[in-house]
Amino acid sequence: MPLYKTINPNKHTAVYVWKIEASFDKLSEGIDLTERSKNRLASMKSEIHRRGFISIRHLLLEAGYTDFDLFYNGNGKPHLKDGKNISITHSFEYSAIIISNVEVGIDIEKNRDKIKIIQNKFVNFERWFISKEDDYIEQLTVIWGGKESLYKIYPHGGLTFKNDIDIESFKMAEGKTRGHIRTYDWDKFYDIHFELLNGFTLVYAIGNE
User: Fold this and answer.
1) 3-state DSSP assignment of residue 101
2) Contact status, residue 87 vs residue 60, Cβ threshold 8 Å
3) What is the DSSP string of 13-29?
4) Could you give the angle at which helices 35-43 and 47-62 cross, rounded to 10 degrees?
């Protein structure tokens, strides 16, 4: 069962990506779950979501953790018992986690035409730098993924992608930019990294040390 890749953007941070190819039953072999996770899994009707959920537990093992090291706050934000920061994502046949000593968030999205239809819900000033000479769908997906990653960092919930989170200008070939959360109780910049994975876009945000 394939760990697709690992990324170490700095000495404090590791990204683990899983390509979900096995069946749910095969993925479940050797995975021990907390009662909370068993209940969450039982409530999932989608086979894709069930496989994604279990694949995340494999990534935890790759990072030296188990499901019993993971817990969630009242807003559903995941935490690790050793105090390190973690963020989780999965989409169709990929899942990923990022673990760090600093604030982090991660998102993976399939590159799809429908993002053009919903862009007005999350694109604000970013529309001024999106280049028609670059891949429009991929650029929009980076903006969405960057904002989703930053949303996952903010601990209180309730941010709007359009008004509270900004992504700075970037080129797809550069693979990085910066993001900004700006709201009544938060004003922070984060490094944003992104890369393409076989029709998907992986984006993750990293705070300052």
Assistant:
1) coil
2) no
3) EEEEEEE--S-HHHHHT
4) 150
* 141 pLDDT above the threshold of 90: yes
Indicate the residue type of 173: A
What are the structure tokens assigned to 5, written together? 């890749």
Q: Which domains does the chain have, with CATH numbers?
A: 3-101 (3.90.470.20), 106-206 (3.90.470.20)
How much of the chain exceeds pLDDT 90, in percent? 91
CB atoms within 10 A of CB 21: 13
Judge whether residue 1 has pLDDT over 70.
Answer: no
CA distances from 197 to 36, 56, 201 (A): 31, 18, 6
The number of beta carbons lying within 10 Å of the beta carbon of residue 184 is 6
Q: How many residues does the chain have?
A: 209
DSSP structure class, residue 69: G
Output DSSP code: residue 71.
Answer: E
- Enter the pTM of the model: 0.95
**Tell me, what DSSP letter sits at residue 157?**
-
Query: The tokens of 36 are what?
Result: 């909370």
- Ranges of H-type helices in the chain: 24-28, 35-43, 47-62, 115-118, 136-153, 161-164
Per the CB < 8 A criterion, the answer to whether 67 and 88 are in contact is no
Annotate 118-149 with b (16+ C-beta within 10 A) or e (fewer). ebeebbbebeeebeeeeeebbbbbbbbbbbbb
